[in-house]
Design a protein that fits this description.
Elements: E1 8-9, E2 22-33, E3 38-43, H1 47-50, E4 53-56, E5 63-71, E6 92-97, E7 101-107, E8 115-116, E9 124-127, E10 134-139, E11 146-149, E12 158-161, H2 174-179, E13 190-198, E14 205-206, E15 210-211, E16 216-220, E17 223-227, E18 234-240, E19 257-265, E20 269-270, E21 275-280, H3 301-311
Length: 312
């Protein structure tokens, strides 16, 4: 028996007037991983949407695709991955594991280490294909009915509008979009990897976890300070420079560049992406005073001020 896990494809789009519905020509491809672990099928989420499918895979397979004119669903405007006031576009994905396999998650990439975090996985929505039966409450495991995928307007622009007069849409309505073969991209807008694993094995697996926001760096009056949108984080700093070294001889030519790199950490979160700042302590002057030790000159001794600051 096929296990139906429906996939909600949410493409970020600017808020529109209530009286209009923007349409996009969507091209989605889904593949199972690893090979031989199961099957996938793509379809419209309900009878109305299935009437606007231009082309799709005929049956279940290890790879499936669909070309479909999707209408914006404003009900998901506050969903994960969508900015407030922006709607989503939906496509159903059905996944069926082979015997002795189980569904792990829907991912936007294949991880070589087999460990998937929230940033790798499309969030799952509990609900049905009809608006009245859908909740926008998200889970992060694969055992649910809908998931939300985002695709930028740059990749898949709006191609039509319900009243046919939206700016940039050339007056096309949904049925007009369906008839024009040149409105679909030549390659898929969105790729979905349906991740399975053998029952009883540890990999691949979903571990959850949110990543700390990338911190910002400020240097003022000889002190480095950091800020991070994620609360209660700690900072780990690395300072590198070709001038921080031991030299021989009676003359040393200084590069003058030091690079500060900082990572934000918090228990239960993934480490942030590193933030970096370059300082040329030989330049001096301007709004920034690089004479950090206030000895009246700019030299490698000023680097030590930064290092000491980081040890506090």
């Amino acid at each position: 028996m096929k296990k139906l896990f429906a996939l909600l494809v949410g493409i970020v789009f600017a808020a529109s007037a209530n009286a209009t519905t923007p349409y996009k020509n969507l091209y989605v491809e889904a593949s199972v991983y690893p090979t031989g672990s199961g099957y996938v099928y793509l379809d419209g989420k309900n009878d109305e949407d299935r009437g606007y499918i231009y082309e799709q895979s005929e049956d279940w397979d290890e790879t499936a695709f669909i070309k479909y004119v999707g209408g914006e669903n404003g009900g998901g405007s506050d969903a994960v991955g969508c900015n407030a006031g922006m709607g989503v576009y939906e496509i159903a994905v059905s996944a069926d594991p082979e015997v002795d396999y189980e569904l792990v998650c829907y991912a936007d990439k294949i991880k070589e280490n087999g460990i998937y975090y929230k940033e790798d996985v499309y969030p799952v929505i509990i609900g049905t294909g009809e608006a009245a039966g859908r909740s926008w409450n998200y889970e992060w495991t694969g055992e649910a009915e809908w998931i939300n995928i985002n695709c930028s307007d740059d990749i898949c622009p709006v191609t039509g509008n319900s009243n046919g007069d939206a700016e940039g849409c050339d007056g096309r309505k949904r049925e007009d979009c369906l008839k024009k073969t040149d409105l679909w991209n030549s390659t898929p807008d969105t790729y979905v990897y349906v991740i399975f694993r053998k029952v009883g094995e540890q990999l691949p697996r979903f571990e959850g976890g949110e990543r700390c926001a990338t911190p910002t760096i400020a240097l003022n009056d000889g002190k480095i300070s950091y800020e991070c949108e994620t609360p209660d984080v700690s900072f780990v700093t690395t300072i590198t420079s070709p001038d921080i070294n031991t030299f021989e001889g009676n003359e040393v030519e200084l590069n003058g560049i030091i690079t500060i790199s900082v990572v934000a950490k918090r228990d239960g979160y993934l480490d942030s992406e590193p933030a970096t700042m370059e300082i040329n302590y030989l330049e001096g002057g301007g709004e920034q005073n690089y004479d950090l030790n206030n000895d009246g000159k700019i030299s490698t001794a000023d680097i030590q001020v930064i290092i000491n600051e980081m040890k506090k």
